[in-house]
C-alpha cells in the first residue's frame, strides 16, 4: 500500500524543549498539561453494538460463543456461525440452519476470518494518497450532491457488484430515487448464474443420471455446499439402493466435479460442441430404443470409439432416466451450450424434478440497472459523467486490458471519483477518493442464498479501523445522512416483513441467522425452449495449421476467485486442486501438448491473444484435453497487499468482454526459461501402491474383501488396554470432493502458520491435513483421485517408539499426542512416520508479535515454538471441551457430540470422527462398511483413521472389471 | 598366489639402526625444536580460520534455527546426521588400533597408535557436536540424559537416540582415558626434557608424578591391558548403536538387521582411510619415515582392503534382502538408489568404496605413496557418500508417493561440514605441537628389541 504515515499525533516540535522558555510560559504549559492529562481521550461514539442478543448471561471469560451471521460470495449469501472468544472472532463454521450451508463451509469461507485481521486492510478514507477524515469526505460529497441534485443526478455513474443484499439494493434504489438520471451498472468478472431471465436450481440428490458439461456444481457454485451434500449423500446409499446417481462429465480441464464422475471425457471446447451435436442427433434419430452398441449415426460423425461409447451410453441413460435425468452446463459455458442443456432437460422432462427454474436471486438484471462495465465505460468515455462511484468491485484490476485503460482515462477526466472497498486496491488508485469498507464481521447487512433464503449479517466486533459498511456509505450518498447500518437493515426488514412483534422475530432471526419464514424464490413459469440447436458452427475454429495454437479457457482461481482473496495467506498457501501448486499460478495444458511443444512443468511461455501477451509458466495435467489451455484469473495483482501483490499472472490482461471464458486462436510460445513453481506434491502416480483404493460399481464394492485394515500382526510391545471412548476417524474417499475446506478449517482451528513460498518450496509446509492427489490410467481413461491425509493416530505408532524424550505419547483413548513442551526436535518421529504427516517448525513460524493476525488465534490451541514437531491432534481441544461439559453435567460424552474441525467443514460428510468402541456411532458404522481399509495397514501400524475406497460406477462396468486395475 | 608373494617380506617395523635414545630425541624434538615452524603456523592458521566458519555456522544456526539447512519433511535428517555418522566412523580407527591390535599383539600399531587415538578423540569431538546442533531446541539436549528431575521425567528408553547418548559418551570417555594413560610415560619424558619452567610444570602436572619406577610400569601395563579390554567392546558397540539409530526405524532402506556389523566394518574402513590420509603428510612433514615405515602403510592398506569387503558385503546384503523378502518398498529403495535422482552419488559411492580398495591387491600399489594417499581420500569420500545415500535416499522416497521430496544441502550445510574440518585439523595441529605424536616409550621398546636382534 502506498499510504503515507498517519498525521503525527503531536505537532512538530512539540517534544523539543523551547529554548526561550521563561518561567511564566513554563507554568502555563504545565498547567495546561495537567488539565489535559485529566481529560479522557477522544473515543468513537458508542453505537450500542450488542451481539449477545440471545445470550442469557454476559460474556464469560474463557468461554467461546457462537453467533449466526452471513457471508457473501459472488453476491450470494451463506449462513455461517462465528466462534468468538471474549469479543474476538476466531473461526467460521457453517450454519446448519441455513439451507445453503447445512453446517458445512468451503475453503474460502474458512479463510475469510483471516481477512478481518489483515494488516493490509484499508484503515481510513484516502483522498488521493493522503489519509483523510470521514468528515472531509462527507463535506466533499455534500458539495458534489448539491451540484448533482439540480440536474437530477445526471452525470453520476455508479458501478457495483451484483448482489443479493436487500438493504444494499434498497440503498442503491434510494440513490437512484434521489438522482433519477444517474447511471447504475454492475460488474463481476466471474460467472453469471442467470440466463434468459431465470436461474436454475438443481436437486442432484433426486437424479439418477447427471450429465455435467464443464460444470463444477459440486465445488464452485453458490449452491455447491448443498449440491455436494445431496449428491454425496445419495451416492453413499447402500449398494443396490434405487437412486445412486451416475455422473457423466464432459469438460476440457479438470473440475473437482469432473473428478467425481463415473464417466468422464476431456475434450476441447470445439470437440465438446461436436459431441453435444452427436447427442442431439441421437435424440433426433430416435435410435435410442435399440440396444445396439455401435450406432451408424454416431459413426458418421467421425467420432472416436471412446466418444461414441460415451455419447451412446449417456444418451441411453438419459432417456432411460427421463425425469430423473439432469443436464448441467457450467455458468462459464457459452450461452448456446447452457441453452442446449436447458433444452435437453426440457426434453427429458427433468424440469420440476431434478431442477427448477426460479427468478434470479442476484441483482444482475435488477430494475434500474443500466448494464455492465461496458456501459459504465461508455458513459465515462462520452464525457457526460462528472461523478463516478465504484462500490465493492475492482474494475481497475478485473477488467480487460483495453477496458482498464478506458477506465483510467475516464476516471481521470471525471470531476469526482470514489472507490469503496476493503483494500486500497488497483481501482482505488484510479479514484480521487477511497473509502474503507468494513469487513463482513464488522457490520450489519443482509443477503439471500442461491435458493432465495434470507439471512441477516450481524457484526461480531466493532469495526477495527475507521471503516463503514457498504450500506452505510450508499445510504450516505443517497441521503447525506450517516446512519448506522443496523438501522438500515432493520428498516429493510420491518418494511418487508411487517409484524407487530417485529422485535421478537428480529431477535429470533439473529439467533438463528436465518430469516424464517421467508418465501423461497418463486419458480418461473416460462419454460425454456426444448429445441436442441446445432452447436458446432458457433465456435470459432482454432488455427489447425499452427501447432502452437490453443483455445484459451479462463477460469476463476479455485482459491483466489477473481483475485479478491489474493492477500489471504491461507488461500495462497492452499495447494490448488490437481496441481498442488501454491503461491503461484500456471497455465494448465495436457501432457501431450506439453511434449509436443517441448515444454516441461515450469517452462515459461508467452500466451498471445490478439497481440496482447502474457508470460506464464505451464503445468501439464494428465486428463486435460488437448488443444486447450486453462488460465486462472486472480493472479498478477499490483495492489493486493503485502501477501498477494505480484503472485501469479494477470490473466485479465488477455481477456476481453466478448471472449470472457473462451478465447480461440491463442498462441502459446516457449521462451526457454524455466520458473520453479512451488508445489506441495512432487509425484502424482501411485506407483502400484494403491494408497487410494478404487473399486468399480456396486459389484466391485461387494467383491472387495471386507475390512482387512486392523491386521492384528504380532507386536513386540504389549497391546494397549481397550478403553472407552476410543477415538477414531473414517474418511470416505467416494464422498471426498478434494475441495480443501478441511485443510483451511484445520489451519484456522489449530493456529497452523503460513510459511511462505520459499519455505513450501523447501518442503516445509505446515498443514496438519493435506489432500494427496493421484492420477491413474485405467482402461485408457485418466482418473484423478483425492485423499485427505491427517495423522492416522496409529495404535502401534512408529513415531512414539523413536522419540528419545517421550514427547509423543499415546493417550488412554487412543490419541497419538504431541507434547510440545517436551519436544527437543530430533525429528526422528517424522522420519519414522510412514504417512509423513508430522510437521516441524524449522524456523520460528509464529506470527510476528504486534501483528493483528494474533487476534485470530484459537486460545484453546498452543502456538508452537521454533524447533518443535507438530501434527494433527484429532482436535484434542474440542474433545476436552466436550469432556469438561459432560463431566460437569455428570453424563457420558454424547454420540457425535465431538466433531473435528475438518469433519465440521466437510460439505460431503466424507470425514467422520467418533468413538469406535461404540458400535452405534457413525464412525463405527462407517468402519463396518465393505472396503474399509487402513492406509499402509500392512505395516501393522494399526491406524485409527481408516478409509473407505473411491468408488466409480461406470456405465461399462463389465469391460472395466475385466481389465487389470 | 602364495602368501609370500602377496604380503611383503617381513621387514622390520622400525629402522634397525635407530637406538632408543635416538627415538626419544627424534619424537620429542618435534615439540622441543619444531621443524618448519612457519609452515606449521600457516597450516594452523588455515585450520583455525576454517574453525571460525564452524563458529559462524553455529551462531547463525542458533539465531535462526535448523531451517537454515536443507532438511525438510520428508528428509528431516540431513548433513548433521550424515556428518555425525561419518566422523564417528573415522573415530573408530584409533581405538581399534590401540585396543584390539594391542590385545592381538600387533606390534606395528606402536608407531601410529598415539596419533590415531588423538585423531579418534578429535573426530568424536566433531561428531559429538552434530547431534546437539541438529536438535530443534538444542538448549534442551540434556533431556536425553537420564537424571532425576522434579517432574519424574526420564528419557524414552526404547529410542535408539537414547542408546546413542550412552554409547557415544562412554566411547568418548574411555578413549580419552585410554589415550591419557598411554601418554603418562611420555609426559614424564617431556617434563624432563622441556626447557621452560611453565612447560616443565605443565608436563609435570599432567604426568601425575611418573618416575619411571618399576612399580609404575607394572601398574601401568596392567591398567593399559584392562583399558584395552574395556575399549574393545566399545569399538563394536558405538557404531552398532549408530547403526541401530537407523535399523530400529520402519523406513525401507534403514530397517535392516545387517546395519550394526556393516556399520562397524564401514567405520574401521573409513577410520583407517583417514589415518592413512593424515599419516602420509605427517610422516613426510616431520621426516618420520624411519619410525612410520612403508610396512606400516602397507599393513593399513590391507586392513582397508579387508574392511572394504565387509562394506561390500553390507551393500550386497541390503540388495539381496530387498530382493529376497519381496517387500515392494524395500525393492523400490534399492532400485531408487541405483536409478533414481541420487543415482550418481550411489555409483560414485560404490566406485570409491568397492572398486578403489581393490588396488591394494597389488603390492606395488600398496607401496606407492600417491596411490595410497589418493585411495584413502577416495575411501573417505565414498564413506561420506554411503551415509548420504543411507540417510537421504531412504527418506526422500518412502511409502506414500505423495510425500516424496528432494534434499538439497544449503550453504550452511556445507559451511558447517567444512567447519568441523577446521576444528579437527586445528586440534591435530595443536596436538602434534605440544604432545608426542608417537608413543616414545613404546617405540623405545621396539628399538631396544631391534637392537637386541641386531
Main traits of this protein?
heterodimer, A: 965 residues, alpha/beta, Barwin-like endoglucanases, Alpha-Beta Plaits, 20% strand, disordered C terminus, B: 454 residues, mainly alpha, 17 helices, 72% helix, 0% strand, disordered N terminus
Show the helix and strand layout.
The complex is a heterodimer of chains A (965) and B (454).
Chain A: H1 23-38, E1 64-73, E2 76-85, E3 88-94, H2 107-116, E4 126-127, E5 130-131, H3 134-148, E6 156-160, H4 166-178, E7 183-186, E8 194-195, E9 198-202, E10 209-213, H5 224-235, E11 246-251, H6 256-259, E12 263-266, H7 269-285, H8 296-300, H9 305-321, E13 325-329, H10 335-348, E14 355-358, E15 369-371, H11 373-381, E16 387-391, H12 395-398, H13 401-413, E17 416-421, E18 433-436, E19 445-448, E20 454-457, H14 470-479, H15 485-496, H16 502-512, E21 514-515, E22 549-555, H17 569-572, E23 587-589, H18 591-597, E24 603-609, E25 612-620, E26 628-632, E27 662-674, E28 694-696, H19 697-703, E29 727-732, H20 741-749, H21 757-761, E30 770-778, E31 781-789, H22 798-802, E32 808-810, E33 816-818, H23 828-832, E34 839-840, E35 869-870, H24 876-888, H25 901-905, E36 911-915, H26 922-928, E37 945-948, E38 950-952, H27 957-962
Parallel strand pairs in A: 6-7, 6-16, 7-15, 10-11, 10-13, 11-12, 16-17, 17-18, 22-26, 23-25, 28-38, 29-37
Antiparallel strand pairs in A: 1-2, 2-3, 4-5, 4-18, 8-9, 9-14, 19-20, 20-21, 22-27, 24-25, 24-27, 29-36, 30-31, 32-33, 34-35
Chain B: H1 3-6, H2 20-32, H3 37-64, H4 79-90, H5 92-103, H6 110-133, H7 160-193, H8 197-206, H9 214-247, H10 259-285, H11 294-325, H12 328-339, H13 343-355, H14 363-366, H15 369-396, H16 411-434, H17 440-453
Helix pairs in contact in B: 2-17, 3-16, 4-6, 4-10, 4-15, 5-6, 5-9, 5-10, 6-7, 6-16, 7-8, 7-9, 9-10, 10-11, 10-15, 11-12, 12-13, 13-15
